[in-house]
Specification:
Protein name: Importin subunit alpha
CATH architecture of the largest domain: Alpha Horseshoe
Strand content: under 5%
Strand order of the largest sheet: 1-2
Helix content: 55-70%
GO biological process, one term: NLS-bearing protein import into nucleus
GO molecular function, one term: nuclear import signal receptor activity
Distance between the termini: 26 Å
CATH class of the largest domain: Mainly Alpha
Radius of gyration: 31 Å
Number of helices: 28
CATH topology of the largest domain: Leucine-rich Repeat Variant
CATH superfamily of the largest domain: Leucine-rich Repeat Variant
InterPro entries: ARM-like, ARM-type_fold, Armadillo, Importin_alpha
Low-confidence stretches: 1-5, 7-23, 37-43, 54-70
Number of domains: 2
Pfam families: Arm (PF00514)
């Protein structure tokens, strides 16, 4: 084997600028993800045409009525008139006029739901926002709250300046996410807030300051699908960055990591899609979130979805997640390989950490580039620097436990690869096994995994270094006398 060992493959030390560059890449990736999602779902903000719960009662518009495309000028005139009717209804206080307010709100909501391009400007010019805010006051009937929140939802789906008009209503919309509100009202307010958050960073920051994040996060804890679906969509708009603090705050809320993965696994395609986008933004923006989710069974769930789902809307964020996680694992393994190439104390720190079972699993199951980085980590923790230019010394207990943990298969996969660097790395580790395993067990472990065949492939290889390394190992450990003493 060549004199240089695994330790010689130590990468350049990590500079402080690398961390900054990595953070910049994460933020840029979040922006890219946002563009991908807009293309996939056509628009970040959504009109509400049917109640979020899907109930078919008087508060839900008739399908035929909902889809009629009115002449825009007529629609605008009707909207102005509806706002005037709402003014009259709001001006009359007491229990008697309650139904008048609800009826006026319902008519305004129907007009704002009827067209693909709602007459939002007409509603705003007629003075709808102060009236709707008044109708959101606590103690109002649920039906009134629902209709008012629904109107605000569709106003928020309009142009940027129209969405900003909701600023006076935001504190009440957030407050109605509390436990004392009915589920229908909570869901509708969440939808309105999702539209506001989708407008941009300025309004997202306003919502974060008003406590929208923990209020929406609580909606992920129940199992009602429509509630979770609406909350997940609103949260993905709220945390999408570029500031990573909201993503980190969300993942730290008690119970949220478990619920996110559970809803992704057990939800239908629509629910899983919204939850998947939350995870995309979490992992794109927050290292804390990525670390927490990596300890869950997220990867297994993603693999299961890829194998079973036929929903393009779901597969888009799932594939995005796979790409994102692969980048993270590769970057993390590179950092660990630098640490593992350090002192014996550094090697022991990694060896005794909870990362070891995960690294062994990645060596067998991860994408090729990640396998290579992981192989550097595992190889480096098994050797100590040698004096002079000799071969590196084996750290026996590290090597024995890795071999018994099944790592030889992964390293032989690298030997069989067409990548010269990976093949060299694999041969170097096989040399450690052949030389270092106690009681002469190394050759038997390698032979059991068809390692002889893997090395003999290099008998006439064009790369002189690999050819020499492989032939030397075969001749030295599997020569004519191999197996005669058995």
């Amino acid at each position: 084997m060549a004199d240089e060992g695994l330790v010689s493959h130590k990468r350049d030390p990590i500079k402080s600028s690398v961390g900054n560059a990595a953070a910049q890449r994460r933020r840029q990736h979040a922006v890219t993800v946002g563009k991908e999602r807009r293309e996939a779902l056509m628009r970040t903000k959504r009109l509400c045409r049917v109640r979020v719960s899907g109930d078919s009662d008087d508060a839900s518009p008739d399908d035929n009525d909902m889809m009629i495309e009115e002449d825009q000028s007529i629609l605008e005139a009707q909207t102005s008139s509806a706002v005037e009717e709402l003014k009259l209804a709001v001006a009359h206080q007491g229990k008697g006029p309650t139904q008048k307010r609800v009826n006026a709100l319902r008519e305004l909501r129907r007009l704002l739901s009827r067209s693909e391009f709602p007459p939002v400007e007409a509603a705003l010019q007629a003075g709808a926002i102060p009236l709707l805010v008044q109708c959101l006051s606590f103690g109002s009937p649920d039906e009134q709250l629902l209709e008012a929140a629904w109107c605000l939802t569709n106003i928020a789906a309009g142009k940027p300046e129209e969405t900003k008009a909701l600023l006076p209503a935001l504190p009440l919309l957030v407050a109605h996410l509390g436990e004392k509100s009915s589920l229908h009202v909570v869901e509708q307010c969440a939808w309105a807030l999702g539209n506001v958050a989708g407008e941009g960073e300025e309004l997202r920051n306003v919502l974060l300051l008003q406590g929208a994040l923990p209020a929406l996060a609580r909606m992920l804890l129940p199992n009602k699908k429509s509630t979770v679906r609406t909350a997940a969509w609103a949260l993905s708009n709220l945390i999408k960055g570029p500031d990573p603090r909201a993503a980190t705050e969300l993942i730290k809320i008690d119970g949220i990591p478990d619920r996110i993965v559970r809803h992704l696994k057990k939800g239908d395609d629509e629910l899983a899609t919204e939850v998947a986008w939350v995870i995309v933004y979490l992992t794109a923006l927050s290292n804390v979130a990525t670390t927490i989710l990596a300890k869950s069974d997220l990867v297994e769930v993603l693999i299961e979805i890829l194998g079973m789902s036929t929903s393009l809307q779901l597969l888009i964020p799932i594939v995005t997640l796979f790409i994102r996680i692969s980048r993270i694992f590769q970057e993390a393994a590179w950092v660990l390989s630098n640490i593992a190439a350090g002192s014996v104390e550094h090697k022991q720190l990694i060896y005794s950490s909870e990362a070891m079972p995960f690294l062994l699993d990645l060596l067998s199951t991860a994408a090729f580039d990640i396998k290579k980085e992981v192989a550097y980590v595992l190889g480096n923790i098994c050797v100590a620097p040698a004096e002079g230019s000799g071969r590196p010394n084996v750290i026996l207990d590290h090597l024995v436990n890795l071999v018994h943990g099944g790592c030889i298969t992964g390293f032989l996969d690298l030997v069989r690869s067409a990548d010269v660097e990976a093949a060299r790395l694999g041969l170097q580790f096989i040399e450690l096994v052949l030389r270092g395993m106690p009681n002469g067990e190394g050759p038997k472990h390698v032979e059991r995994e068809d390692g002889i065949d893997a090395m003999e492939r290099y008998q006439f290889h064009e790369n002189e270094e690999l050819r020499s390394m492989a032939n030397e190992l075969v001749d030295c450990y599997f020569g004519e006398e191999y197996g005669l003493d058995e």
